[in-house]
Amino acid sequence: MSTAPVAAAPSMDPIVLARLTGKLGDQETISKLCATLGDVFSEFLPDMLESELGFEVAVSYAGFATGKYGELTEGLGGAMAFCDASLRDWCEHFTLICDSPLVITLVENMLGAVSDSIEDPQPRPLSKIELDVAAMMFDRISGVLKTAVSSATSFEPLLGAAHNAELRKPVEDGTQNEHVAMVNMAVGIGPVLSTFHVVIPQRTLLKSVITAPKPANAAKTRAEWSEQLSEQVRRSKVTLEARIHLEPQTLDTISRLQPGDIIPFNEAGDVRVDVNANGRNLYVCEFGRSGARYTVRVKDTYGSEDDILQHIIG
């Protein structure tokens, strides 16, 4: 007696399934939620940043986008700074993104440049010090976001390290295929117009009650911010490189050098050493020793303190 084959149950459309399980919302609902959150950023970030930084910052809502996490974030291209974050009792993973011109312009203004004289920076990967400043910007953005959804949590956001888009590693936990909404914000500092983005899972956004934070919760004092930024920049570690000029050698001699061979310095007496960081010369030094360690002693600089900071950061 033969057994009749059992027909496989038809699979449910993944889009329909995502809607039924609360992971995907309709465009009208997502649009309203994103616009409400954008209005919160527009209202509170400018005053916060202006009072803390001391120069005018314009922030406005620039629309939203929906799609899969991987497609949306990769579609932004390179020269972006990313920060993966979480907020207990609200969202286990959301992402903050700034384009590099925003951070570059922010750093230039922090170092005393006049906003109107700054040209629109070319997008590029950020230096370590610039990433440190990006991290502080992410902290302010997440602070406003936290107060906007404070009815859902009393915890503080947990922020990962700020990093360039080129260094992001692919994830294998399904995040890349999660339905998300990306809130796009435009930021104007002088003539420079840049952007930041907040990427939130739709399943989280659909459950959120977004309210404007109270002004008392929105900012630190300008002095506190300036001191914190200044300290952060000056504490950032920079790799220095010392170069000593050696006596010219023929190509034949160089090709025959072996371990243990000696090449004399090109100068007698005090040996000049150029010290640089990020390819920029900073100091003129002389070569020496301190106990068992070789050292260099600073004799002159290639500019003022502000010039050196600009060289290192750039």
Characterise the protein shown here.
- The protein has 314 residues and is an alpha+beta fold.
- The chain has helices spanning 14-20, 27-53, 69-74, 100-110, 128-148, 202-205, 222-235, 251-255, 305-313, and strands at residues 58-68, 80-87, 91-99, 158-159, 163-164, 179-189, 192-201, 241-244, 272-277, 280-290, 293-301.
- Strands 1, 2, 3, 4, 5, 6 and 7 form a 7-stranded antiparallel β-sheet that branches.
- A hairpin with a 2-residue loop joins strand 10 and strand 11.
- The radius of gyration is 27 Å and the shape is elongated.
- The model is unreliable at 217-223 (pLDDT under 50).
Please render the helix and strand layout as text.
Blueprint (H helix, E strand, L loop, with lengths): L13 H7 L6 H27 L4 E11 H6 L5 E8 L3 E9 H11 L17 H21 L9 E2 L3 E2 L14 E11 L2 E10 H4 L16 H14 L5 E4 L6 H5 L16 E6 L2 E11 L2 E9 L3 H9 L1
Antiparallel strand pairs: 1-6, 2-3, 2-4, 2-5, 3-7, 6-7, 8-9, 9-10, 10-11
Helix pairs in contact: 2-5, 2-7, 4-5
Protein name: Flagellar motor switch protein FliM
InterPro entries: CheC-like_sf (IPR028976), Flag_FliM (IPR001689), FliN-like_C (IPR001543), SpoA-like_sf (IPR036429)
Keywords: Bacterial flagellum, Cell membrane, Cell projection, Chemotaxis, Cilium, Flagellar rotation, Flagellum, Membrane
**Shape, please?**
elongated
The value of Rg in angstroms is 27 Å
Q: Number of helix segments?
A: 9
What class would the helix/strand composition place it in? alpha+beta
Distance between the termini: 81 Å
The helical percent reads 25-40%
**What's the total number of strands?**
11
Please indicate the percent range of residues in DSSP E strands (runs of 2 or more).
25-35%
Low-confidence segments, given as residue ranges, are 217-223
Main location: other
Membrane topology: Peripheral membrane protein
Keywords: Bacterial flagellum, Cell membrane, Cell projection, Chemotaxis, Cilium, Flagellar rotation, Flagellum, Membrane
Protein name: Flagellar motor switch protein FliM
